[in-house]
Amino acid sequence: MSSAPTPEPAAPLPRSRLTVVAAALAVLGLASALGLGLALVEERGRTEAAQAAARANLALAYTEKARSAATEHDFTGAALYAAAALGQAERPDARGLALTLASAWRPEPRFRTRLLSGCTRLAFSPGADTFACSTLFSVLLLDAATALEKGKLSLGPAAGWLQAVSFSLDGRFLATGGDDRLVHVFEVAPRTERTPLAGHSGAVWAVAFSPDGRQLASGGRDGDVRLWNLGSGASEVLAHHEGGVTAVAFSPDGRLASAGRDRTTRVWEPGGAKESLVLSLHLQDVTALAFSPDGSRLASASADRTVRVWAVPSGREVWRLAGHGEGVNAVAFLPDGRLVSASADATAAVWDGETGALVYRFGAGGAAVKAVAVSSDGRRLALAYQDRTVAGFAVGPAERGGLLSGYSDAVKAVAVSPNGEWVAAGGQDGSVRVRRRDDGGDVALLEGHRGPVRAVAFLEGGPGLVSAGDDGAVRVWNLADSRQGPPLDQGPRPVRALAAGGHRLAWATDDGGLVLFDVAAAAPLARVKLDSPAAALAFSSDGNLLAVGRQDKVVELHDGATGKAKWFAEGHDGPLSALAFSPDGGLVASGSLDHTVRLWTVERGREAAQLLGHAERVGALAFSPDGRTLASGSDDNSLRLWDVATRAELAKVSAHDGDVLSLAFTPGGDALVSGGADRIVRVLDLGPLREDGAQMLARVQKEARLELAGSKWEARDFSGE
User: Fold this and answer.
1) How many Cα atoms are found within 13 Å in the side-chain-facing hemisphere of 101?
2) Which of 402, 485, 676, 716 has the fewest CB atoms lying closer than 10 Å?
3) CA-CA distance, 100 to 326, in Å (whole number)?
């Protein structure tokens, strides 16, 4: 049997071949590794893309929730959802919505003052310039803007604590009641007391004047509700509560409501002859009452931590507003139907008048809130605290950042000093006021123009200010001593527009004249006759170029030194009314009576974009210092903020109760100053535009004392902060 041949061992590969094989294996390994790496990179990219898409979808969902909440008048929830959207992905529409809502619905603090004895009750005068505070032995009359004392109605130690205060609707009389069991009635001017009204057998806790001023209702510890004839001093007892009467209130049509410690609220028909309602759903003492401006609803606050809103005259409960952590001590309606409540939990809350939704909740510095009052115009809110302090808030729209009031007529022009500390405003009354931006204090009152001031501008490198107006004068003021030098020009024609750039000035008169002026040389550079009068001017930041907006719908670009025209552009369907030059010199923005804002390229004068949204004339424009944001103000009472790069509208703010006539950014771009026909200069804080989503969400959550839980907003306890 033959055996299988034994295989010979393979000959070893030459070293050169081993090197080739090793290299091939290395290449194969590298390729495999590269393939695996590329696969991992691709997978990571797909994961990151999926995560980004998920964040974008969540941001979109939150934005839609914000819009839905705003539609339902839940403005706090809308602002929070918008902030939450930005926490997931950048959405200009969400950022703008958050800014708009925060600006429009947040009560802004104006002052906080500690009094010697504190306030038990508050009431605004009908003129809204004064509020009264009932305190120990006296009623203080305080300035509504500053809380500085304007007067005092003293009753002496026998009166004890005064527990109530009320103005008559015509502002002639003020009533108060206190521990001495008397109702005291004062004539406001002159400040004289009439014969006290005697009849209660216990301390008087509540007073209210009838709409016609002929009657006065009062209630107190004895449980009686008394109706006084102010002509004769006689009274009748309408009812007796089984406990002290803590509140009385008249409706606009003369119904009287009373409430007390027996947990009931009673309502009488006009004249007090017939009791029509007894409302008794509160679980503890009823502490305060307020009728809505139209008299169709009655709000009752209670120690049971709720506010109930009732339909009048049916007595049907419309809402039960729950959200305070302690008893509710005070309640008041705003003229637009919103409701304000104040509580021992150290917060006040604003509720929507249509839905009952919580609009905003703001803190009171840790002290229980005892009383609340709202001015007749709805712009001021005052709170009295347990720690003997009173605070004032601005309640009107777009108050974020501050306001400078006290102007006697429309504010035609505003400018901010190069250091950002001062705001200058020129008015219809011919005056120029320079005030500190931070607290509104006066720096200078400049008087000399004999007609409306239509333009103001600060000079670079010094304390100078230039103003021009209908009297044809262009004046330079030294703010160090409030003196004016000789006019740069004193022509017979009104000056309609003024611009400053670098060391140059330009102004335009209503007959088509245009003057270019060198400030350093104190001499004119050129005089130009335009084909149509200019309504607006704007210099480039270096002063080398001047944009001119004409009444015949044309935008021109001129050399800033010679006045020579470089190009003309047409496109607006109405006369020009506003201009602004971008800081980088690349764009000119124009506003018109056609309601539009248009952007033009400086290089060739081509139209780059149309910004649509305003419903009336666009009368003011301003670029932010970084050139990323454009502000526009309109006769539709609003100002809008636009993203220059994307042309998207960032925010719409109802800034004024009238035409927005002038705009100016602060040098740092942190605020926007606006002047309007409502005689107000507003300072709009633009902080929300600079925040990222996480910062905005944290701030809005803390301010509103709410946090996101699941898919809805719930109250958060900030008591430990």
Assistant:
1) 27
2) 485
3) 31
* Whether the Cβ atoms of residue 135 and residue 118 lie closer than 8 Å to each other: yes
- Burial tier of 710 (Cβ tally within 10 Å: 0-12, 13-18, 19+): exposed
Packed helices 75-88 and 693-704: angle between N→C axes, nearest 10 degrees? 150
Q: What kind and span of H or E run contains 536?
A: strand 534-539
Q: How far is CA 470 from CA 131, 272, 486, 544, 666, in A?
A: 39, 58, 17, 27, 27
Sign of CA dihedral 519, 520, 522, 528: negative
Q: What 3-state DSSP class applies to 589?
A: strand
Angle at 363 between CA 362 and CA 365, to 5 degrees: 155
| Structure token pair of residue 699 | 């701030």
The predicted model gives 232-236 an average pLDDT of 92
* 528 band by pLDDT with thresholds 50, 70 and 90: very high
Tell how far CA 715 is from the center of its chain: 24
Per the CB < 8 A criterion, the answer to whether 88 and 702 are in contact is: no
Contacts of 140 (CB under 8 A, 6+ apart): 115, 119, 132, 133, 149, 151, 152
Distance CA 720, CA 357 (A): 26
Torsion of the alpha carbons at 613, 615, 619 and 624, rounded to the nearest 10: -20
9-13, 222-226, 274-278, 494-498: least confidently modelled range: 9-13
Q: What is the C-alpha radius of gyration for the chain, rounded to an integer number of angstroms?
A: 34
Q: Are the CB atoms for 413 and 661 separated by under 8 Å?
A: yes
Q: Where would I find the beta strands (DSSP E) of 399-518?
A: 403-404, 411-416, 422-427, 431-436, 442-447, 453-458, 464-469, 473-478, 483-484, 489-490, 495-501, 504-509, 513-518
Cα torsion 545, 549, 554, 559 to 10°: value is -20
- Closest to 721 in 3D by CA, of 707, 373, 374, 575: 707
Instruction: Tell me the CA distances in angstroms from 598 to 333, 549, 642, one per residue in order.
Output: 42, 12, 12
Residues 6+ apart with CB under 8 A from 78: 66, 67, 69, 70, 97, 101
Reading the block at residue 52, the tokens are 């980004």
DSSP string, 648-688: -EEEEE---SS-EEEEEE-TTSSEEEEEETTS-EEEEE-HH
Look-up of token digits 């009354």: 429
334-371 per-position pLDDT tens digit: 988 889 999 999 989 888 887 787 777 776 557 899 99
CA distances from 697 to 78, 91, 401, 652 (A): 12, 14, 19, 20
Nearest to 297 by CA among 278, 317, 279: 317
How do residues 218-233 score in pLDDT, each as one tens digit? 999 999 999 999 999 9
The whole-angstrom distance between residue 473's C-alpha and the CA centroid of its chain comes to 35
How many other CB atoms are there within 10 angstroms of residue 341's CB atom?
26
